[in-house]
Amino acid sequence: MIKVGIIGNGVASTTAVREIRDKDQTVEIDVFTDERHPYYPRPNLIDLIAKRRTIKETIRYDLDWYKKNDVNLYLSTPVFQIDTKRMAIKSTSMDHEQYDSIMIAVGCRPFIPPFEGLHKNNVHVIRTLDDALDIRKAVEGAGREIVIGGGPLGIELAAAMKEIGGDPIVVTNEDRLLPLQLDDQGSKVLTKQIEKKGIQVLFGFECRELSGDEDVTGIVSAQKDEIKGDLVVIATGVRSNTIIAKNSGISYHHGITVDDYMQTSAKGVFAAGDCMEWNNEWYGIIPWATASSRIAAQNMIEFGSAKFNGITPSNQLQVAGIELTSIGIVNPGFPDYESIVSVDIEGGKYHKAVLKDDVVVGGISLGNRKVALKLRSLITKAEKVTNIKQSLFETE
Ligand SMILES: Cc1cc2nc3c(=O)[nH]c(=O)nc-3n(C[C@H](O)[C@H](O)[C@H](O)COP(=O)(O)OP(=O)(O)OC[C@H]3O[C@@H](n4cnc5c(N)ncnc54)[C@H](O)[C@@H]3O)c2cc1C
Question: Considering the entire predicted model, what is its pTM?
Fold first, then answer.
């Protein structure tokens, strides 16, 4: 009987469990997580903060799911090392031995810039269910919330805070929102829509310091400007968790490096999801985690049976009714790409298709789900659109 150990219990891990169970009912599966809750999708945390979901509704797989799938789940069990010779997983409580294959699926941690005053009360990050509960409670007692970071997470978080009666301001050092997913015009349209919802946005603010004594009272910029606020959430990106690889002599760069089979530099040890880097590529999004973990799972039970080909990165954002989809190349920056754009600032609509040799290779759709679906389909088909260039954003 094959025995596999999976470190981590996020979407990469549970996707691997499902993939393994689809193919083989007899594999023995152990899953280790440092969290106290069973699996929940992280996007649900925004709903939890906005009080659209209870804790029970946030959790997707309760303990019964693990029982039904015959998985030994070790909650609150941080793993710090793999003994790659003995194929043993070393947790803080004991060694678990003799796995045929091991998968590292430990995700990311929030990246926190070295601001002064980080130790003060009411300074938060958002990654786990417990972080979300802390933030929701803190918003109830706060006058004004400061969200540092103009990426998808910062914006969604601010919208959730607004929904439960908060007064959030989004602060970014960039000159536009979602710099990776949008262009200048798209950011202008999104900013206007967000401001219409009563959320203030401040660009070009280089935060250096969190002010206050024990409790945070605001943030201070490099130019000594201050914004007052009694709750600060730092949403300035993430970094892969590579510490297990480092402790185990396994190669890593930005993430844990893997080959096309998702195998790390250690034979029989695989990595998938946010903690993994493949072919110098890395993403912190669910499609990356699920695609890579399916490949890893297949190779864990039959090595060589599946190869990873990468993904077309895509982001979907729902901010208080604003639909945004950003897929593939959206800011090409080379003359051999063509961009077709349609803008309606007041109506909150922005569409962009990026073409190379008349094939759609990327796109943005703000405010229209049907256009988003059409762009996604055109990108997947990768066929020439020469004859329909003028009607790319028509959906009827
Ligand atoms: C609030 C929020 C909203 C998001 N919304 C979206 C979205 O709309 N769309 C999208 O594509 N992406 C979204 N993301 C990103 C997405 O959630 C991640 O890409 C995804 O969770 C990655 O899955 P993963 O399994 O690789 O890692 P994770 O989900 O981070 O899971 C890693 C697991 O490993 C465990 N772990 C870590 N270290 C150890 C250790 N030493 N020992 C034992 N266990 C350990 C963790 O506790 C966790 O269980 C969002 C993220 C957040 C935080």
Answer: 0.94
